[in-house]
Amino acid sequence: MPFKDIIIPEAKDVKLSAIINTFSLFGGGMQLCVEAIIMAFEQGFIEKREEVIACSADTAIVATGSYKRLMFSPYEGMEIKEIICKPRDLTITRNKVYSEDEK
User: Fold this and answer.
1) Does a structural domain hold residue 9?
2) Model pTM?
3) Known InterPro entries for this protein (predicted)?
């Protein structure tokens, strides 16, 4: 499998770093949206299977919550139902390389 042994430089917890880096592929706000929904669910503000909207920085999603430890469970895990908006250019999470014409 291509993702079996992912090496992330300077990562203390490779699994956690892989999750965070995956969220950054969608933009700077995706991780914050997911974290907000998980925190709200764990504090009892969101019901099981309740769809909520989370907005943060440059991203907005519709998702269901879950406990952090069950986030990837096929039965009780979080579901991102819809990405309402996300940045087209990932200027927050990645440095954009400009050509000489764009400077």
Assistant:
1) no
2) 0.78
3) Pyrv_Knase_C_sf
